[in-house]
Each structure stands twice: as structure tokens, then as C-alpha cells.
Known about the structure:
By secondary structure, the protein is α/β, with parallel strands linked by helices. It is about 40% helix and about 20% strand. Strands 2-1-3-10-4 form a five-stranded mixed sheet, sandwiched between helices. A five-stranded mixed sheet has the order 7-6-8-5-9. Strand 6 (about 130-135), helix 5 and strand 7 (about 155-160) form a beta-alpha-beta unit. Helix 3 (about 45-55) crosses helix 8 (about 220-240).
Amino acid sequence: MKALGLFLILTLLCLSAPARAETIVLASDYWCPYICDPIKTGREGISVDIARMIFEEAGHSVSFMPVNWKRAIDETRSGGFDAIVDATRDDAPDFVYPVEPINDQATCFFSSRSSHWIYKNLESLRNVSLGVIAGYHYSGALDDYVNRNRYTGRVAFMHGDNALSRNVRRVRLGMIDVLAEDPRVLGWLLRAQGEGAALRLAGCLEERTPLFIAFSPANPHSQEYAHIFSEGLRRLRQSGELERIRKQYGVD
């Protein structure tokens, strides 16, 4: 009886103890102000700051791995990383998504300063060569346009690291006419390079796309992590902490 009583006590203690602390490994390419190189900026970015705060409050630690976007998706899918940061649902439909998005994405078009082209609708893109980053999803309509024109010469894909910087250079050299990007991200890059007025805003898509931390389908804890994140993000929003983090990066 004593042995049985001791067993029951130990079982109850195990069931009531908090889950073992884990190190949650996030992966993405740099996309400042959302995901920044701390060596260059002294900060990790809005999204990493938010994720770190939420998971550390829950007793976990967070590690960030900077890799190109395609590798981030592929290795997270296989379980090499725990989550990708600032993903659309189209980036990895098989991943585990929280209820709450961490950010939203605007997509605008930027040309050289000498250009007079203006974005009016998707049909107006037929008159220019458009630079996009391979593996990125922008919005449903623009993604459809990119896929339809993959082999027509109207769309140029940039692969690998520093893809946005290289696309900016291609616009400035006249190798492509226009690039598509979130204006906050491009603005941050140009300011960092001392080229704040290097390109011209030529118009934007009307819709904004929600962005998520998306968790690996190979990790048995992903549903739990997604729930922790959604609840934590709601608390940060209600407390005003979310707004404070974003304002640190000049984003409201």
C-alpha cells in the first residue's frame, strides 16, 4: 500500500509539473525590420523579438538561424528547424499555423527613378519585366501572375542570399524594370545602404497578406507551440507591448 501511495504521488507530481523547457529554433532569411541581422543593426527584428518574448515567458528559449527562404522551408518541413518566421499560408500549406498572424505584408512595385511606369492592375505588369525572389509568396493574385509568366520573360527570379539587394541592383542597372517588395523592408534596406531615394514607388497591391510563424509538421510539439504563440500574442496586444516593440523599429 505504501508503495502504491508513493507511486500515485509521484504520478500526480509529474502530471502537474510544467512541460520540459525546449529550445525553439526559428529559421528565415533576413527581412528587416521584421527579421534583422543583429551584427549589422544591433537588433533581431520585430518578429524575432515578439517570438522570443512569448516563448521565454512560457519557459522555453529561442534560437534563430539565418538561412535563405527555400532552405528554411525545406529543413523545417523535415524537422531540422522548429518554425519559419513571417510565412504566408501559401509558403508551406502543410505546416502548423497559429490562429494569430505575427505581421501583415504589403506588396508594392518599385522602379528606377527615371521610369514613368505606374502600376494600375496586374495587366499593367505585362509592359515591364518584374523581379521577384524565388520561393516567396506575395499575394494570391500576384502569385498567379508570376506562375503564369514564369517562362514568358516577363518575370525574373532571384535565388540565394541577399536576393533583395541584388534585385535592387538589377533595377538600377536596367536589367529588370520593376521589383516587388514590402515597402517597409525595402525602405529599411535602402536607408541602411545610404540610398534612401534610390528607387521610385510605382504603386501597390490593394490587399495585405497576413504573415505567421509556421511550425514544422514533423515536430510533435508544433500544435502546442502554435497555441502558446497565439495566446501570447493576444496578451502582448492587450498590454500594449506589441505596439511598443513595433515602434522601436519605426513601424506602427
